[in-house]
Design a protein that fits this description.
The complex is a heterotrimer of chains A (about 230), B (about 750) and C (about 550). Chain A contains 7 helices and 9 strands, in the order E-E-H-E-E-E-H-H-E-H-E-E-H-E-H-H. Chain A has helices at about 20-25, 80-95, 100-110, 145-150, 190-195, 205-210, 215-220, and strands at about 1-5, 10-15, 50-55, 60, 70-75, 135, 160-165, 170-175, 200. Chain A is globular, with a radius of gyration of 21 Å. Chain B has about 750 residues and is of the alpha/beta class. Chain B folds into 4 domains: about 5-60, Single Sheet (N-terminal domain of TfIIb); about 110-170 and about 370-565, 3-Layer(aba) Sandwich (Rossmann fold); about 170-360, Dimethylsulfoxide Reductase, domain 2; about 610-725, Barwin-like endoglucanases, CATH 2.40.40. Chain B is about 30% helix and about 15% strand. In chain B, the strands form 8 sheets. A 7-stranded mixed β-sheet of chain B has the order 5-4-18-17-16-6-7. The longest helix of chain B is centred in the first third of the chain and has 19 residues, at about 110-130. The chains are: A alpha+beta (about 230), B alpha/beta (about 750), C alpha/beta (about 550). At the A-B interface, helix 5, helix 6 and helix 7 of A face strand 3, helix 1, helix 8 and helix 23 of B.
């Protein structure tokens, strides 16, 4: 079964059940995404992929909304652009996007300004370096949820991490903030593999960035002992 | 942010799953590993070893210069015995304060010198004592190409079939059983098909730790596809959390439990008679032997409730698609072959084999244990499982290797354990070990140690001086997976590429190049020029092997570039064979084998009241040559014995307490983990830790057919010990994952 | 670290173990009753017993503001500092209490005897200022803070009609007094499809705020295929300024239960839940008693039974899908819709979820018939309607009128603006609503008339500000409220509520920056257009209305 509808004024055909995002990409229409990842369940969290669908009161996330016959979709209406630009500006005022190249490019494209929100409280936290495999720098976390999802039912069924706090103060965390080795974490690093902003990073990459040489890094795992708990 | 110089796509060097890795390289240093989400086997998922465990490549202890013992270099006669030495002399100076004669010092040398010593000594011994004095351990971690060449060198040049590798120690029972019952010895279906099962049995496999990615697929099958999982295991392994049923059997009682399931299937007429009639033979004789295996009888022996056995049998038999996945808990027993046969019977009775989403699936342990076996790294088989005692097979390889007619040896070779136990005058005199570590992986290590010292000449080809290499006369520094090209064949028969991420460290050389160089030197000394040793790349090696082994005939590097191919691939246009036995079994009909219950060789008694079972940990790998020299060791730095809270209380043992675990063969001191993960009367030890080697305790009793040792059950006692008795009192694992 | 004795925990959570994850919130409540807070060992034991991953248990504890993973006082005083109470010097009350006990807000006394917290609206606006002290309300606290009423808050009910509120104002109504469930009996005589037809014909529109036709919901769930269907009563009344459901639940629980029974019968549901907000603990025993009466009378039983679930301090759980998640033992994250609850609701099954007041209309509709019901109200807004009138009026309280009354008429009922002052503004529909002024007083309070005027009916909040009030203070509280209550799931709301609060704080503090006006608008419209659920979509509603009415408040002072 196929459906035919209008996207940016152009007639497009889609398979039944195909998402608007998918249809757009097939038709060469660029819709930005942040939280969307091919290997995780789409949750429509970032709302950067929203589009305007005629007859709908609110903008619709194209990553999950399915194409339907006679839909009229605008992927870059004024409302859409305002939402995307504002979301990007709010992100920039919230967290460290220095390693999120895709988002920086989006900001440029949408004319989003870094300093749009002066005096904004930023989400900042110390780097958590509590295991031999990866570091967690939640100052760079934009809460795309991917790490929590792959730790759970999207991949690893390990459930070592979840959310702390809520609203703006939401952060990814472990049971009672325990160090990673003391959680159910299996150190698979699947979370690192899907992190879009460098908030989760392999330890050795982190050390290399800190200016350590490969030789220095190579001896680091040879002498460290763990202390016995009291 | 670091921009990689290049990203090399390759295959993981750890378990048999065969995950695709992308090595991110900067200045010839891998700083990150990712996996593409469209990777054929793992769909972008990795475990801790695959994603982070590659750093052994850069460990300062890695040896990248050829080493020889001082006595060789100085032209002295070999001193008596054999010493285990790890230290390397600096600038050729004697190692100071050594407790051992400086004649045993490791001294750095050049390749020519090292290889000449090897060639001289091997040829000397061969000329003196003949083929039966020569033996080689191939390597389940090395590539197909490496393995093919090493067995070729021994078979073609030394005319011996004393070729084996650690497959003997892991799945030999399964391999022999499958050979007897169906005539093949690999997984019948791919692991990815687990999501097509509606009922599946996991037994003797702690899949979450040993094949983590397959465990994910199992969990997915349960969580997202509604499959029912039956776990049959003495330990309350991670998978039990998602299982429909857990049958906690006493170690070594597989035959009664699975035979009782067969009994139920027959008695309740849940048999797929059409399958039994059309596809199997010897049912009647088998039926006779089955009579006594009532669920009640099995309960008495195994401790599994008869009702649970019935329920599990019904569930599996009534499944649309049923499958069995098993690991070493089946095969590493003195009746490992019988255990595997008991499983095979279940599939025969129900017809749960030969279709997608069913099957008999022994999960192969190592990255290339399947491939190494395929390559003929075994004493009874040439590549392609061609029996060495069959003159027709011999003729084929003689032709391929340019050997005179009748030149290859028809005599079956010795197995790994037998090779070492025959290390004495008139037996094995020279041993060549590529990448293996018998001083960790053999049972009853105190015996193994004696055998090692009885060898006249020992060569180690490895990346570290491990516990076995430390006994060698010459050490040849090879390259790890990240520095060589070739192929691995994973547990479900997928042949995939291995690609070098950067050039070898120091003077290290890829194994295949070392073997070719050495083979030419041996040929010179033997005054023959037979087999071909001049390859310009590893693909030529694989193609040579494929020209005789039909399973690999259609495999080229170009064809397997992206997603590999699942053999058999008989022709260049064949798409591969994910599901085996759809029409018939290689031996024609599947054969039922009458079984009897044989208890484990050493049962607990008053003196040694616990059953010790051994296994692996997620963070570690086998003898630890790689993982103990990696950040993985920081994640899990010590051996621990798991003991049930009820037993711990009786013995006054608390969590983290040091305890001595003692068997009739040896003792070790480790910390205790008091956990319900193990069952009452059973203690568990991982065998990765040299400082507390579980195999000092294990029993070297062998399965009579497969010659696999009984790693999974021996009798031990557990005593409280002192902190100071621990090998590393200041080390303690604090992990929450169990 | 002191040893935690887990012995009393096991019997307390035993009955929740068969519920699995769905038993998590009740188990945490039970544990907190024992330990006063939720220590790691306790959380861990609950996780193991209910087979919920540890990190998920922690995530749930962290989400709900009434769960504590650090020690708190034996007694907890929650002082409402929201709109209506703020007009009655709630800040002064909070500071007085803190000063008296020598702590700051959110702090606990050293002897762990007392914790004092400011709270979002406690739903007792007509008796402001109020506080919740453990399970008891303290209401009508005097200006010197010394006298107050304690216990279950009184019900102050009046209006031109007393139909829905017929039994309200005299404390809980027993089943004996309520009489038999005549509506339910008539419904059963009518047949399922006829009941749905009747409700559709009545034109009943949901009273929770989203204004969805109730009959259509029922029809959808009736047609949906599922192993098990559910009826859920949304009693998570948390919209600032709203207190009608509190009165209905406490004084006339059988009307709600009968409404649920009728719905269950019509759609074929066998299981129901009443999800009541954690800030109404004093109503829980009333409901429990009423349910047992209904069970005894045979209205509830194997064919259909109702379980009470108590929230734990999360406004978002009033959003229907977030409420489902909460019953399922998860953080109250709203789900993506579609699928809608009628096909994929609680536990993924077809579910009808209705507000308390909506449910209370059902016995009436069935008893009187759609035509009889339509005698009240207008063509498009039929029926009686409850309004929660509070703030600067002479007689704050719950007022029942026929749809069609104007705001002026309603204010007159409530005695007009208090102290003879003039009206500055009315907050209609709560924090998620909009401000109206004098010029809107003659608009009829119906769905259609308000929509035409660009105003929301919301949950029926009419919160009055007199001419002396500084609206910037109201706005800053609204900003704070949404920032505190955003679940954090979608970016527009998660960050937008924060940015909005920051700008409104500047507005309230007279520190407006160049560009704040446009900034606030962009944030507001982005939340309105792009948020995942009703919370985010309305988080800027009141602010944007204020920007239209009083643009000067948002200008840079020169």
């Amino acid at each position: 079964m196929t459906v035919t509808f209008l996207m940016d004024g152009k007639e497009v055909t889609a398979q039944d059940g195909q998402t608007l995002l998918d249809v757009a990409r097939e038709n060469g229409i660029e819709i930005p995404t942040i939280c969307f990842h091919e290997a995780t369940t789409a949750n429509a969290v970032c709302r950067i992929c929203v589009v305007e669908v005629e007859g709908m009161r609110t903008l619709q996330p194209s990553c999950i909304v399915k194409a339907a016959t006679n839909m009229k979709v605008q992927t870059r209406s004024e409302k859409v652009v305002r939402a995307r630009k504002t979301i990007l500006e709010m992100l920039s005022a919230t967290m460290d996007l220095s390693e999120a190249a895709d988002i920086q490019a989006m900001m440029k494209e949408y004319g989003a300004r870094d300093e749009r929100f002066p005096d904004a409280v930023r989400r900042e936290s110390d780097i958590k370096d509590d295991n031999p495999m990866y570091i967690r720098d939640y100052s760079k976390c934009l809460l795309c949820w991917r790490c929590v999802q792959v730790c759970a039912d999207d991949a690893q069924f390990t459930y070592a991490i979840n959310f702390e706090g809520r609203g703006y103060e939401t952060q990814i965390g472990t049971f009672f903030d325990k160090a990673i080795p003391q959680t159910t974490c299996v150190l698979c690093g699947q979370c690192v593999g899907v992190c879009p902003t460098g908030a989760l990073k392999p330890k050795r990459e982190f050390l290399l960035e800190k200016g350590k040489t490969p030789a220095e890094i190579s001896v680091m795992n040879t002498g460290r002992k763990q202390r016995k708990p009291r | 942010m670091i921009k990689p110089d290049r990203i090399t796509t390759t295959t993981c060097p750890y378990c048999g799953v065969g995950c695709t890795l992308q090595l991110h390289v900067k200045d010839d240093f891998i700083y990150k590993v990712t996996s593409p989400f469209d990777s054929p086997v793992n769909h972008g998922n990795l475990c801790v070893k695959g994603r982070f465990g590659y750093d052994f490549v850069y460990h300062p202890k890695r040896v990248t210069t050829p080493l020889v013992r001082r006595y060789l270099l100085e032209g002295k006669p070999k001193p008596e015995g054999r010493e285990q030495v790890y230290a390397i002399s600096v600038d050729g100076k004697p190692i100071p304060d050594s407790q051992i004669s400086n004649d045993w010092d490791w001294v750095e040398t050049d390749w020519g010198t090292a290889l000449n010593f090897v060639a001289d000594n091997l040829v000397r011994i061969y000329k003196r004592d003949g083929s039966d004095a020569m033996a080689v351990y191939c390597c389940a971690k090395a590539t197909n190409e490496d393995n093919y060449l090493l067995q070729k060198m021994y078979r073609a040049l030394f005319r011996t079939n004393n070729v084996d590798h650690c497959t003997r120690l892991c799945h030999a029972g399964s391999v022999v059983a499958l050979q007897q019952a169906v005539g093949s010895s690999a997984m019948s279906n791919t692991a990815g098909q687990v999501i097509m099962n509606d009922v599946f049995i996991v037994t003797g496999s702690n899949t979450s730790e040993n094949h983590p990615i397959i465990a994910l697929q199992m969990k997915e099958a349960v969580q997202k596809h509604g499959a029912k999982m039956i776990v049959v295991d003495p330990r309350r392994i991670d998978l039990v959390d998602m299982a429909e049923m857990w049958l906690p059997l006493k170690p070594g009682t597989n035959v009664p439990v699975f035979s009782a399931m067969a009994h139920v299937i027959v008695k309740e007429n849940l048999v797929n008679w059409e399958f039994v009639k059309d596809r199997t033979e010897n049912f009647d004789e088998f039926m006779e032997s089955l009579e006594k295996f009532t669920p009640e009888y099995a309960e008495e022996i195994s401790g599994v409730a008869a009702e649970d056995i019935r329920k599990a049998a019904r569930m599996y038999a009534k499944a649309k698609n049923g499958a069995i996945y098993w690991g070493m808990g089946i095969s590493q027993l003195s009746h490992g072959t019988a255990s595997a046969l008991a499983l095979i019977h279940l599939a025969f009775l129900t017809g749960h084999v030969g279709r997608d989403g069913t099957g008999l699936n022994p999960l192969r342990g190592q990255n290339n244990v399947q491939g190494a076996s395929d390559m003929g790294s075994m004493p009874f088989h040439y590549p392609g499982y061609m029996r060495v005692d069959n003159p027709e097979n011999r003729a084929k390889w003689e032709k391929a290797w340019n050997i005179e007619e009748g030149g290859l040896n028809l005599k079956l070779g010795l197995t790994t354990t037998e090779i070492l136990s025959n290390a004495h005058e008139g037996g094995i005199r020279a041993l060549y070990i590529m990448g293996e570590n018998p001083m960790m992986s053999e049972p009853n290590l105190n015996e193994t140690r004696k055998h090692m010292t009885h060898l006249e000449f020992l060569v180690a080809q490895d990346i570290f001086i491990n516990e076995s290499g430390a006994f060698a006369d010459v050490f040849l520094p090879a390259t790890p997976f990240a520095e060589k090209d070739g192929t691995f064949s994973n547990t479900d028969r997928r042949v995939q590429r291995v690609r070098a991420a950067h050039k070898p460290r120091g003077q290290a050389r890829p194994d295949w190049q070392i073997i070719c160089d050495l083979a030419l030197r041996i040929e010179t000394r033997l005054g023959v020029s037979t087999a071909h040793w001049a390859y310009s790349n590893p693909e030529e090696i694989l193609r040579e092997m494929g020209s005789v082994n039909p399973d690999y005939a259609g495999i080229t590097y170009e064809r397997i570039d992206k997603v590999g191919l699942i053999y058999p691939v008989p022709t260049l246009d064949h798409p591969g064979t994910p599901t085996l036995f759809t029409e018939s079994f290689p031996r024609g009909r599947g054969k039922f084998h009458p079984l009897d219950y044989v208890p484990v060789r050493e049962e607990p008694d008053d003196e040694y009241p616990f059953i010790l079972t051994t296994g692996r940990l997620l963070e570690h790998w086998h003898g630890g040559t790689m993982t103990r020299n990696s950040s993985l060791n920081e994640a899990y730095p010590e051996a621990r014995v798991e003991i049930h809270p009820a037993d711990a209380e009786i013995h006054g043992i608390r969590n983290n307490d040091p305890v001595k675990v003692q068997s009739r063969r040896g003792e070790i001191v480790v910390r205790a983990t008091v956990t319900e993960k193990t069952t009452v009367g059973v203690v568990f030890l991982p065998w990765h830790f040299h400082e507390a080697a579980a195999n000092l305790l294990t029993n070297d009793a062998l399965d009579p057919q497969a010659k696999i040792p009984e790693f999974k059950a021996c009798a031990v006692q557990v005593f409280p010990a002192r902190e100071s008795d621990l090998p590393n009192p200041d080390v303690v694992v604090e992990r929450g994952r169990y | 670290m002191s040893e935690i004795n887990l012995t009393p925990l096991k019997p307390a959570i035993e009955k929740y173990i068969p519920l699995g994850r769905s038993g998590l919130l009740p188990a945490l409540h039970a544990a907190q009753k024992i330990y006063n807070w939720l220590p790691e060992e306790v959380a861990s034991e609950i996780a193991k017993s209910l087979r919920v991953p540890l990190a998920d248990v922690h995530g749930v504890i962290e989400f709900y503001s009434m769960y504590y993973n650090k020690p708190v006082g034996k007694k907890i005083i929650r002082v409402c500092t929201d709109q209506a109470c703020a007009l009655k010097n709630a800040d002064g009350l909070l500071h007085h209490l803190c000063a008296h006990h020598g702590i700051e807000p959110h702090q606990t006394t050293e002897d762990l005897s007392l914790t004092i917290e400011p709270s979002p609206c406690l739903g007792i606006c007509e008796q402001a200022p109020v506080a919740l002290v453990d399970d008891q309300a303290e209401t009508n606290i005097s200006t010197d803070f010394h006298t107050y009423e304690v216990g279950t808050p009184r019900s102050i009910v009046d209006g031109t009609l007393r139909i829905l509120t017929a039994n309200c104002g005299n404390g809980p109504t027993s089943l004996e007094k309520y009489g038999k469930y005549a509506g339910l009996e008539k419904a059963q005589a009518l047949g399922r499809l006829e009941v749905i037809e009747e409700v559709k014909a009545s034109g009943l529109i949901g009273r929770g705020g989203a204004a969805f036709p109730t009959g259509i919901k029922g029809e959808g769930a009736e047609r949906a295929i599922g192993d098990q269907k559910y009826v859920v009563c949304n009693a998570d009344e948390s919209e600032p300024g709203t207190f009608k459901d509190r009165v209905l639940l406490n004084d006339d629980p059988h009307r709600v239960i009968e409404g649920m029974c009728i719905t269950a019968y019509a759609v074929g549901a066998t299981k129901g839940y009443i999800y009541i907000r954690g800030e109404y603990p004093y109503i829980v025993p009333v409901l429990e008693h009423a349910l047992s009466e209904a069970r005894e009378a045979g209205y509830l039983g194997e064919h259909f039974d109702i379980e009470i679930r108590v929230g734990a301090g999360a406004y978002i759980c009033g959003e229907e899908t977030a409420l489902f998640e909460s019953i399922e033992g998860k953080r109250g994250f709203p789900r993506v819709k579609p699928p809608f609850p009628t096909t994929f609701g609680l536990f993924g099954e077809p579910t009808v979820i209705n507000n308390v007041e909506t449910l209370c209309n059902l016995p009436l509709i069935i008893s009187e018939g759609a035509q009889g019901y339509r005698k009240f109200g207008t063509e498009k807004s039929p029926g009686p309607k409850l309004f929660c009138v509070s703030g600067d009026v002479a007689k704050p309280g719950l007022y029942e009128v026929s749809f069609g009354a104007t705001m002026r008429e309603l204010l007159d009922l409530a005695g007009g603006v208090a102290n003879g002052r003039k009206l500055k503004a009315v907050l209609l529909g709560g924090a998620a609503g909009a401000f109206a002024t004098e010029e809107h007083l003659d608009i009829k309070l119906t769905f259609e008339d308000l929509r035409a005027a660009g105003l929301p009916l919301g949950s029926g909040v009419v919160l009055v500000y007199d001419e002396t009030r500084d609206m910037r203070d109201a706005l800053h509280r609204i900003g704070h409220f949404f920032a505190h209550e955003s679940c954090g799931k979608c970016y527009p709301c998660q960050m937008g509520t924060q940015r909005q609060m920051e700008i409104l704080n500047r507005v309230a503090g007279g520190r407006v920056l160049e560009g704040d006006f446009v900034r606030l608008q962009d944030v507001g419209w982005t939340m309105t257009d792009a948020s995942i659920c009703g919370l985010g979509q309305t988080a800027a509603s009141a602010v944007l209305s204020a920007m239209k009415l009083w643009p000067e408040l948002f200008e840079v002072k020169s």
